[in-house]
Each structure stands twice: as structure tokens, then as C-alpha cells.
Amino acid sequence: MQTNLASWASGTDLGNEADAILRRCVHCGFCTATCPTYQVLGDELDSPRGRIYLIKQVLEGKEPTQSTQQHLDRCLTCRNCETTCPSGVEYGHLVDIGRKIVDERVERSWGDRTRRTLLRKAMLSPMFAPAMRLGQSLRGLLPQALRRKVPERRDAGPLPQVGQHARQVLMLAGCVQPAMMPTIDAATIRVLDAVGIGARFAPGAGCCGAVSFHLDAQDEAVAQMRANVDAWWPLVQDGKVEAIVMNASGCGAMVKEYAHHLRHDAAYAQKAADIVALVKDVAEIVAPHAGLLRARLPAGMRAAFHPPCTLQHWQGLQPLSEQLLADLGFELQPFADKHLCCGSAGAYSVLNPDIALELRDRKLGAIAAASPDVILSANIGCIGHLQSGTDTPVRHWVEVVDEQLRRAAQG
């Protein structure tokens, strides 16, 4: 694609990056076939190719409008289009640039600004956990629209002493998972303990930055990235940990991009690159030990595995995760359109509920045809979003493995 950047964009870091991405696009349109919003809305401007044109026009000097902003907002950032693209267009990075530039030039309505700010601050607030516990205690009394956002609370169970293990890893507590689904972190610690790996959290590490980054606060997100690097760096530098393990694929995808987001920061660029080299999804850590765990697990369970977009399109880990689950004895059931987004996409399901719910129901309809006993996934957002539309249990796979190991240990 030929470009002619406006003077304000030409020669800048963002302009140069966008220009390089735009020039790889050959207008083929393959991306439209796998874009969830295009399938739902049928509007070319709600497809990757259409959004690329909009961003190109802005970079070439055309003033963006609220319509431009809306089309970019509707993007799920699932990156399915990147998996499909034969030219290797880094659409995800391009849409990040486009959103930042458009948001600087188009003022949102008061209501939209307020909703995004409150959502961001609520998810990152220390009051989120007590508010979630209150909501869970009153869940049966909540309106249906709100009740589907509040998961039932389950006991996280006891945690093992892990300091004796020679192998040690770090985990990221994140912002909402400990409050909404504490069983995921607890299960991860126990499963890693079962294969001889100790897992712990670094004081000072918090939200990965994804919430702020996708809610019009990219500078705030970068500050959160630096804070996490600072929290992890002493342990990484001393060689005390062999990996930083992620059990939420959304967080893992974001942290794996720290080197990209901090590449122009002289104080953090190399540290971020070193951190990224250590980031592993929990499936990557458990996979080499599948045989050891399989010997302790009961007969297989009929399951459907929903691979989050951040796992399959951002990180390319769907094959490894599914092979691990098969090696652990799960009877995985195939279903249609596994590559498509479920509609969760972080805060997207709150900001664009109509699209999100249609995508959720399409996904659940495809899964229902496989008649699984349980739906497995690898990201808290997808788990909560899918569970809100089905009576079939939706769990993180590590929770189910942990439960089976605990039952086996009890005889």
C-alpha cells in the first residue's frame, strides 16, 4: 500500500512504524473472512481492511471524526486477521497507533469518557476485591445483566509450601483475577508444586497494563509496565527465577509485548526484552511434565477447549495447549469456528454488549453441538463471558487438573 504521510506524522516514531505496517498491506481482503465484527455488522469499515484505510487517511492528513473513532473502538483486537494475513501485516500494532492518534483529535462524549474512566479505575481500584465479594454474596438478588458479570465464588483451597523447590517461577496476580476467580491462581500454584516447581508473586507487581492500554490511557499503561519490570527485575537479575508464568492469556499476551512498548525507553528497553524472554504461559511450563501428571489423573473427561484470541492469535500457543490437554487425558471435542473471538476482549463486552453477546452466543452454539461435559479455556475474561450464557461449566483447564489431582490424593 502506497502512503504519503502528513508532515506531523512523517519522521516520527509512530509515523515510521505505521508507515512500515501500511506498506505491507496488499488489499487482498483475506482478513475480512475471519474478522468477527465484519461477520456481525457486514460493514467494510468494521473490518481490518476498512480500519487500515481509515488509519491511513488520518496519517495522511484527513481529520478523523467520531465515526472514525467508533469503527476503531469496535475492533476486538483479537488479531485473527494477523493469523490470516499472507503479507504479515501487524494490524494489532497499527490499530494501537490509530486509536492513540484519533483519541488525541476526537473528543469523546461526556458519557463515553465517564464510562471508560470509571471502568478503568474500578478494575484497578483496591476496592474492587471487596466490591466483588459483596456482589458475589448478593448475586442471587442482582439484575440479570449484572449477575452475569459476577461469577460464583469458590473456595481457593489450601496452598502448599513451595520454597523447598530448586525450580522457582514468578506469577502475576494481575488486577481482577484474584478477586473474581482466586481458584485459578491457587490451582496454578498447586499444579506447579505437583511437578516440582515453586511459584510465588513479586511484591509491587500488579496489572499488566492491558486494562489501561485499551481504555484510552496508554501512558498510564506504560507506567504500569515499568512498575512490573521494576518489581521483577531484582529476582530476574539474580537468577532466582527461571520463568514468569502467566495463567491468564490476556496478561501473557500484553507482557510479551513489553519489549515493543518500551523499545524507545533507554532505561527499560533491555530490561523489558530480558523480561519478555522469560514469560511463559502455564501450559508451556506444564507440558513437559504431562506424563507425570497423567499417571495421577482419572479417566478422561469429555471437554471442549475454547482457545482465547490472546492465546491462539497473539501468542500462537493453541496447538501446544490442546496437545497438553490431550496428553493429560481430556477427550477434546472439535467444534466449528474455533478461531473466532467469543466477544469478551477485556472491557469490550461492557462497552459493546450487543456485539459481544452475539459473538458469545455464536460461540456457545458451536460448542453446544459438541455436547461437552465442561468447557475449558485459558483466560479469565473468556471464562466469565462464556459462563454467563451457558449452564455447562466453563473453567480454566488448570483448575480442572488441580481438582482431579486433589481427588486422586484423597484416595
Topology:
Elements: H1 13-22, H2 36-41, H3 48-59, H4 66-73, H5 80-84, H6 91-105, H7 110-124, H8 128-137, H9 144-147, E1 167-171, H10 177-180, H11 182-194, E2 197-201, H12 210-213, H13 218-237, E3 243-246, H14 249-255, H15 258-261, H16 269-278, E4 279-281, H17 282-286, H18 290-294, E5 302-305, H19 309-314, H20 318-327, E6 331-332, H21 348-351, H22 353-368, E7 374-377, H23 380-387, E8 394-396, H24 397-409
Parallel strand pairs: 1-2, 1-3, 3-4, 5-6, 5-7, 7-8
Describe the structure concisely for a colleague:
The chain has helices at residues 13-22, 36-41, 48-59, 66-73, 80-84, 91-105, 110-124, 128-137, 144-147, 177-180, 182-194, 210-213, 218-237, 249-255, 258-261, 269-278, 282-286, 290-294, 309-314, 318-327, 348-351, 353-368, 380-387, 397-409, and strands spanning 167-171, 197-201, 243-246, 279-281, 302-305, 331-332, 374-377, 394-396.
Notable traits:
411 residues; alpha/beta; 4-stranded parallel sheet
- Principal-axes shape call: globular
Structural class category: alpha/beta
Strand order of the largest sheet: 2-1-3-4
The major beta sheet can be summarized as:
4 strands, parallel
The rounded distance between the terminal residues' Cα atoms is 64 Å
Instruction: Output mean pLDDT.
Output: 94
Give Rg in angstroms.
Answer: 21 Å
As residue ranges, the low-confidence spans are none
How many β strands by DSSP? 8
The number of helical segments is: 24
| DSSP helix fraction | 40-55%
β-sheet strand percentage: 5-15%
